[in-house]
User: Fold this.
Amino acid sequence: MGTKYDKYGALHVNAAGRLVDRNGTAVVLRGFSTHGLSWYPQYVNRDFFAFMSEKWNADVIRLAMYTDEKDGYCVGDDANKARLLEVIDRGVKAATEVGLYVVIDWHILHDNNPLMHKDEALAFFDLIAKKYHAYGNVFYEICNEPNGDCTWKDIKEYAQAVIPVIRKHDKYAVILCGTPHWSQNIEDAVADPITIDDNLMYVFHFYADTHRKEFRDRFEAVAGKGLPLFISEFGCCDASGNYSNNFEESSGWLSLADKYDVSRIMWNISNRDETSASFVPGCTKISGFEDEDLNEGCRWFVGILAGDPAKRD
Ligand code: IDC
Assistant:
Protein backbone atom coordinates (compact mmCIF):
# COMPACT_ATOMS: atom_id res chain seq x y z
CA MET A 1 0.00 0.00 0.00
CA GLY A 2 1.38 3.41 -0.94
CA THR A 3 1.84 6.26 1.48
CA LYS A 4 -0.20 9.42 1.53
CA TYR A 5 2.60 11.17 -0.29
CA ASP A 6 2.52 8.50 -3.01
CA LYS A 7 -1.20 9.11 -3.36
CA TYR A 8 -1.56 12.86 -2.94
CA GLY A 9 1.81 14.32 -3.87
CA ALA A 10 2.49 17.97 -3.21
CA LEU A 11 -0.19 19.68 -1.12
CA HIS A 12 -1.45 23.22 -0.89
CA VAL A 13 -3.89 25.33 1.10
CA ASN A 14 -7.26 26.02 -0.54
CA ALA A 15 -9.50 29.08 -0.21
CA ALA A 16 -11.45 27.44 2.61
CA GLY A 17 -8.24 27.02 4.64
CA ARG A 18 -7.92 23.26 4.13
CA LEU A 19 -4.79 21.35 3.20
CA VAL A 20 -5.62 19.68 -0.13
CA ASP A 21 -4.08 17.80 -3.02
CA ARG A 22 -4.14 18.96 -6.63
CA ASN A 23 -7.72 17.74 -7.10
CA GLY A 24 -8.92 19.65 -4.06
CA THR A 25 -9.26 16.59 -1.82
CA ALA A 26 -8.63 17.44 1.84
CA VAL A 27 -5.59 15.63 3.24
CA VAL A 28 -4.93 15.20 6.96
CA LEU A 29 -1.38 14.38 8.00
CA ARG A 30 -0.60 12.44 11.16
CA GLY A 31 2.84 11.83 12.48
CA PHE A 32 5.64 12.56 14.91
CA SER A 33 8.14 15.25 15.76
CA THR A 34 11.74 14.56 16.62
CA HIS A 35 13.15 16.01 19.80
CA GLY A 36 16.04 18.47 19.28
CA LEU A 37 18.15 17.39 16.31
CA SER A 38 21.40 18.24 18.13
CA TRP A 39 20.52 15.98 21.02
CA TYR A 40 18.80 13.02 19.36
CA PRO A 41 20.14 12.81 15.80
CA GLN A 42 20.22 9.01 15.92
CA TYR A 43 16.48 8.73 15.29
CA VAL A 44 16.86 10.50 11.96
CA ASN A 45 17.52 7.35 9.97
CA ARG A 46 15.90 5.72 6.97
CA ASP A 47 15.08 2.45 8.72
CA PHE A 48 13.11 4.19 11.41
CA PHE A 49 11.33 6.47 8.96
CA ALA A 50 10.32 3.43 6.91
CA PHE A 51 9.18 1.72 10.12
CA MET A 52 7.21 4.80 11.13
CA SER A 53 5.47 4.85 7.78
CA GLU A 54 4.86 1.12 7.41
CA LYS A 55 4.26 -0.04 10.98
CA TRP A 56 2.84 3.09 12.58
CA ASN A 57 1.01 4.47 9.54
CA ALA A 58 2.57 7.90 10.03
CA ASP A 59 2.42 10.35 7.12
CA VAL A 60 4.75 13.05 8.35
CA ILE A 61 7.94 13.56 10.33
CA ARG A 62 8.82 16.94 11.81
CA LEU A 63 12.51 17.76 12.19
CA ALA A 64 12.73 20.03 15.25
CA MET A 65 15.86 22.15 15.14
CA TYR A 66 16.25 24.28 18.24
CA THR A 67 17.72 27.69 17.51
CA ASP A 68 18.81 29.06 20.88
CA GLU A 69 18.92 26.13 23.31
CA LYS A 70 22.23 24.30 23.87
CA ASP A 71 23.84 23.46 20.52
CA GLY A 72 21.02 25.26 18.77
CA TYR A 73 21.55 26.51 15.22
CA CYS A 74 22.12 30.13 16.26
CA VAL A 75 24.26 29.56 19.33
CA GLY A 76 26.68 26.79 18.35
CA ASP A 77 29.82 27.11 16.22
CA ASP A 78 30.11 26.48 12.49
CA ALA A 79 30.75 22.78 13.01
CA ASN A 80 27.49 22.57 14.95
CA LYS A 81 25.62 24.31 12.13
CA ALA A 82 27.14 21.92 9.61
CA ARG A 83 26.11 18.92 11.74
CA LEU A 84 22.54 20.19 11.97
CA LEU A 85 22.34 20.79 8.23
CA GLU A 86 23.62 17.27 7.68
CA VAL A 87 20.94 15.81 9.97
CA ILE A 88 18.25 17.79 8.16
CA ASP A 89 19.57 16.61 4.83
CA ARG A 90 19.58 13.01 6.02
CA GLY A 91 16.06 13.50 7.35
CA VAL A 92 14.61 15.08 4.23
CA LYS A 93 16.17 12.45 1.99
CA ALA A 94 15.09 9.53 4.21
CA ALA A 95 11.55 10.93 4.46
CA THR A 96 11.42 11.33 0.70
CA GLU A 97 12.69 7.81 0.05
CA VAL A 98 10.01 6.27 2.24
CA GLY A 99 7.18 8.58 1.14
CA LEU A 100 6.74 10.72 4.26
CA TYR A 101 5.98 14.42 4.28
CA VAL A 102 8.62 16.31 6.24
CA VAL A 103 8.43 19.54 8.24
CA ILE A 104 11.63 21.52 8.72
CA ASP A 105 11.05 23.31 12.02
CA TRP A 106 12.92 26.46 13.11
CA HIS A 107 12.36 25.63 16.76
CA ILE A 108 12.43 28.90 18.67
CA LEU A 109 11.56 28.55 22.36
CA HIS A 110 13.97 30.14 24.82
CA ASP A 111 14.48 32.79 22.14
CA ASN A 112 10.89 33.86 22.52
CA ASN A 113 10.70 36.32 19.62
CA PRO A 114 11.61 35.19 16.09
CA LEU A 115 12.99 38.67 15.36
CA MET A 116 15.87 37.83 17.75
CA HIS A 117 17.51 35.57 15.18
CA LYS A 118 15.87 36.97 12.07
CA ASP A 119 19.09 37.28 10.06
CA GLU A 120 20.09 33.69 10.83
CA ALA A 121 16.58 32.56 9.90
CA LEU A 122 16.75 34.40 6.57
CA ALA A 123 20.10 32.77 5.77
CA PHE A 124 18.85 29.35 6.89
CA PHE A 125 15.63 29.40 4.88
CA ASP A 126 17.46 30.77 1.86
CA LEU A 127 19.80 27.80 2.04
CA ILE A 128 17.25 25.08 2.66
CA ALA A 129 14.57 26.36 0.28
CA LYS A 130 17.24 26.39 -2.41
CA LYS A 131 18.17 22.81 -1.54
CA TYR A 132 14.69 21.33 -1.20
CA HIS A 133 12.47 23.40 -3.49
CA ALA A 134 11.98 20.54 -5.92
CA TYR A 135 11.03 17.90 -3.37
CA GLY A 136 7.27 18.41 -3.09
CA ASN A 137 6.95 16.78 0.36
CA VAL A 138 8.67 19.53 2.39
CA PHE A 139 6.93 22.02 4.71
CA TYR A 140 8.79 24.99 6.16
CA GLU A 141 7.85 25.87 9.76
CA ILE A 142 9.32 29.29 10.31
CA CYS A 143 8.94 29.77 14.09
CA ASN A 144 7.87 27.03 16.47
CA GLU A 145 6.52 28.85 19.52
CA PRO A 146 6.81 32.59 19.96
CA ASN A 147 6.14 33.33 23.62
CA GLY A 148 6.55 35.84 26.45
CA ASP A 149 6.18 39.41 25.29
CA CYS A 150 6.38 38.55 21.59
CA THR A 151 3.36 40.00 19.78
CA TRP A 152 1.59 38.95 16.59
CA LYS A 153 2.88 42.18 15.06
CA ASP A 154 6.47 40.96 15.67
CA ILE A 155 5.70 37.54 14.22
CA LYS A 156 4.03 39.06 11.18
CA GLU A 157 6.99 41.33 10.57
CA TYR A 158 9.28 38.30 10.77
CA ALA A 159 7.06 36.17 8.52
CA GLN A 160 6.87 38.91 5.91
CA ALA A 161 10.67 38.90 5.78
CA VAL A 162 11.13 35.10 5.70
CA ILE A 163 8.34 34.16 3.28
CA PRO A 164 9.80 36.00 0.24
CA VAL A 165 13.18 34.38 0.90
CA ILE A 166 11.55 30.94 0.78
CA ARG A 167 9.42 31.85 -2.24
CA LYS A 168 12.44 33.03 -4.18
CA HIS A 169 13.36 29.33 -4.47
CA ASP A 170 10.25 27.38 -3.61
CA LYS A 171 6.99 28.63 -5.07
CA TYR A 172 4.74 25.83 -3.93
CA ALA A 173 5.63 24.44 -0.50
CA VAL A 174 3.27 25.05 2.39
CA ILE A 175 4.72 27.40 5.01
CA LEU A 176 3.73 27.03 8.67
CA CYS A 177 3.79 30.08 10.92
CA GLY A 178 3.76 30.00 14.73
CA THR A 179 1.40 32.20 16.73
CA PRO A 180 1.78 34.12 20.02
CA HIS A 181 1.81 32.52 23.45
CA TRP A 182 3.42 29.19 22.56
CA SER A 183 1.42 28.89 19.34
CA GLN A 184 -1.98 29.21 20.89
CA ASN A 185 -3.27 32.71 20.19
CA ILE A 186 -4.56 31.94 16.71
CA GLU A 187 -7.23 34.64 17.19
CA ASP A 188 -4.50 37.23 16.58
CA ALA A 189 -3.93 35.82 13.12
CA VAL A 190 -7.65 35.89 12.30
CA ALA A 191 -7.78 39.55 13.23
CA ASP A 192 -4.73 40.46 11.15
CA PRO A 193 -3.79 37.67 8.73
CA ILE A 194 -0.66 37.53 6.62
CA THR A 195 -1.73 38.56 3.13
CA ILE A 196 1.51 38.37 1.14
CA ASP A 197 1.13 34.61 0.68
CA ASP A 198 -1.82 32.26 0.47
CA ASN A 199 -0.05 28.94 0.80
CA LEU A 200 0.38 29.35 4.49
CA MET A 201 -1.04 27.76 7.63
CA TYR A 202 -1.07 29.03 11.19
CA VAL A 203 0.33 26.80 13.88
CA PHE A 204 -1.59 25.71 16.96
CA HIS A 205 -0.12 23.52 19.73
CA PHE A 206 -1.89 21.75 22.57
CA TYR A 207 -0.82 19.67 25.54
CA ALA A 208 -4.04 17.92 26.45
CA ASP A 209 -3.81 17.80 30.23
CA THR A 210 -3.18 21.55 30.41
CA HIS A 211 -5.21 22.85 27.47
CA ARG A 212 -8.73 21.58 27.84
CA LYS A 213 -12.21 22.58 26.76
CA GLU A 214 -11.66 26.32 26.97
CA PHE A 215 -8.87 25.97 24.41
CA ARG A 216 -10.91 23.64 22.23
CA ASP A 217 -13.70 26.22 22.16
CA ARG A 218 -11.19 28.86 21.07
CA PHE A 219 -9.71 26.53 18.47
CA GLU A 220 -13.15 25.73 17.09
CA ALA A 221 -14.17 29.38 16.87
CA VAL A 222 -11.10 30.10 14.75
CA ALA A 223 -11.30 26.90 12.67
CA GLY A 224 -14.94 27.77 11.95
CA LYS A 225 -13.82 31.04 10.41
CA GLY A 226 -11.70 29.16 7.88
CA LEU A 227 -8.26 30.13 9.18
CA PRO A 228 -5.84 27.48 7.88
CA LEU A 229 -4.59 25.61 10.95
CA PHE A 230 -1.89 23.01 11.45
CA ILE A 231 -1.11 21.29 14.76
CA SER A 232 2.63 20.81 14.37
CA GLU A 233 3.04 19.73 17.98
CA PHE A 234 0.80 18.13 20.57
CA GLY A 235 1.19 16.07 23.71
CA CYS A 236 -1.22 14.02 25.78
CA CYS A 237 0.42 15.23 28.98
CA ASP A 238 0.89 18.70 30.43
CA ALA A 239 2.55 21.68 28.81
CA SER A 240 5.94 20.90 30.34
CA GLY A 241 5.98 17.67 28.34
CA ASN A 242 5.79 15.78 31.60
CA TYR A 243 3.49 14.45 34.35
CA SER A 244 0.36 12.40 33.60
CA ASN A 245 -1.21 11.75 30.26
CA ASN A 246 -4.85 12.63 29.85
CA PHE A 247 -6.27 10.50 27.08
CA GLU A 248 -9.82 11.68 27.52
CA GLU A 249 -8.83 15.28 26.78
CA SER A 250 -6.50 14.05 24.05
CA SER A 251 -9.38 12.20 22.36
CA GLY A 252 -11.46 15.37 22.54
CA TRP A 253 -8.70 17.20 20.70
CA LEU A 254 -8.24 14.61 17.99
CA SER A 255 -12.00 14.51 17.32
CA LEU A 256 -11.99 18.27 16.94
CA ALA A 257 -8.97 18.15 14.64
CA ASP A 258 -10.79 15.47 12.60
CA LYS A 259 -13.86 17.68 12.33
CA TYR A 260 -11.84 20.43 10.66
CA ASP A 261 -9.37 18.19 8.77
CA VAL A 262 -6.46 19.58 10.76
CA SER A 263 -3.15 17.71 10.59
CA ARG A 264 -1.46 16.77 13.84
CA ILE A 265 2.05 15.81 14.93
CA MET A 266 2.95 14.28 18.29
CA TRP A 267 5.90 15.51 20.40
CA ASN A 268 8.53 13.78 20.74
CA ILE A 269 10.71 11.02 19.28
CA SER A 270 13.31 10.33 21.96
CA ASN A 271 14.08 8.16 24.98
CA ARG A 272 14.42 11.18 27.25
CA ASP A 273 13.09 10.60 30.74
CA GLU A 274 9.85 12.55 30.29
CA THR A 275 6.20 11.66 29.67
CA SER A 276 6.07 13.12 26.16
CA ALA A 277 9.03 11.03 24.94
CA SER A 278 8.00 8.20 22.66
CA PHE A 279 10.40 5.61 24.07
CA VAL A 280 11.09 4.39 27.59
CA PRO A 281 14.37 5.72 29.01
CA GLY A 282 16.21 2.39 28.87
CA CYS A 283 15.43 1.82 25.20
CA THR A 284 18.52 2.34 23.06
CA LYS A 285 17.06 1.07 19.77
CA ILE A 286 16.89 3.48 16.87
CA SER A 287 14.33 1.50 14.85
CA GLY A 288 12.33 -1.72 15.01
CA PHE A 289 10.49 -0.72 18.17
CA GLU A 290 8.25 -3.17 20.03
CA ASP A 291 5.28 -2.27 22.21
CA GLU A 292 7.31 -2.50 25.41
CA ASP A 293 9.76 0.11 24.08
CA LEU A 294 7.01 2.72 23.86
CA ASN A 295 5.81 5.10 26.51
CA GLU A 296 2.05 5.10 26.97
CA GLY A 297 1.43 8.35 25.00
CA CYS A 298 3.21 7.06 21.92
CA ARG A 299 1.53 3.67 22.26
CA TRP A 300 -1.86 5.42 22.45
CA PHE A 301 -1.28 7.45 19.30
CA VAL A 302 0.20 4.52 17.39
CA GLY A 303 -2.93 2.56 18.38
CA ILE A 304 -5.13 5.32 17.02
CA LEU A 305 -3.22 5.45 13.75
CA ALA A 306 -3.49 1.68 13.42
CA GLY A 307 -7.24 1.76 13.89
CA ASP A 308 -7.99 4.84 11.88
CA PRO A 309 -9.48 4.05 8.49
CA ALA A 310 -8.64 7.58 7.31
CA LYS A 311 -4.93 7.05 7.87
CA ARG A 312 -4.39 5.82 4.35
CA ASP A 313 -7.40 7.50 2.78
C1 IDC B 1 10.79 20.35 25.76
C2 IDC B 1 11.43 18.99 25.79
C3 IDC B 1 12.36 18.92 26.97
C4 IDC B 1 13.35 20.07 26.88
C5 IDC B 1 12.63 21.40 26.77
C6 IDC B 1 13.57 22.58 26.56
O1 IDC B 1 10.43 17.99 25.85
O2 IDC B 1 13.05 17.67 27.00
O3 IDC B 1 14.13 20.08 28.05
O4 IDC B 1 11.75 21.36 25.66
O5 IDC B 1 14.33 22.41 25.44
C7 IDC B 1 6.85 22.87 23.74
C8 IDC B 1 8.08 23.10 22.94
C9 IDC B 1 9.03 21.92 23.09
C10 IDC B 1 9.05 21.42 24.52
C11 IDC B 1 7.67 20.85 24.83
C12 IDC B 1 7.54 20.25 26.24
O6 IDC B 1 7.82 23.36 21.58
O7 IDC B 1 10.32 22.35 22.68
O8 IDC B 1 10.01 20.40 24.59
N1 IDC B 1 6.68 21.88 24.65
O9 IDC B 1 7.84 21.23 27.21
N2 IDC B 1 5.77 23.61 23.74
C13 IDC B 1 4.90 23.15 24.66
C14 IDC B 1 5.46 22.05 25.25
The first strand starts at residue 12 and ends at 13.
